[in-house]
């Protein structure tokens, strides 16, 4: 167990950030899954900007890598355009 005050605080902060990152990452994954499952083009076109913004936000906060966000956005755009 850590002995220093600063390490104890760092452990608390890390745990809080980890839980927050997990929540946002899981929410975004579910949104991506929902967009992929959509067969209606109108709904897909309305969901795409929201999901794109979510991915950009995760990449900006270093929860996911920026290239992963770019790859996901590209694949989702292709999927929506095929509908």
The structural domain count equals 1
User: Count the strands?
Assistant: 0
What is the name of the CATH superfamily?
Ribosomal protein S20
User: Judging from the principal axes of the Cα atoms, what is the shape?
Assistant: elongated
Largest sheet: none
The run of helices and strands is: HHH
Average pLDDT score: 95
Tags for this entry?
single chain, 83 residues, mainly alpha, Methane Monooxygenase Hydroxylase, Chain G, domain 1, 3 helices, 0% strand
Describe this structure in words.
It is a single chain. The protein is an all-alpha fold and 83 residues long. Helices cover 84% and strands 0% of the residues. It has helices at 5-37, 41-60, 66-82.
Break the fold down into its secondary structure elements and pairings.
Layout: H1 5-37, H2 41-60, H3 66-82
Quickly describe the structure.
The chain has 83 residues and is mostly helical. The protein contains three helices and no strands.
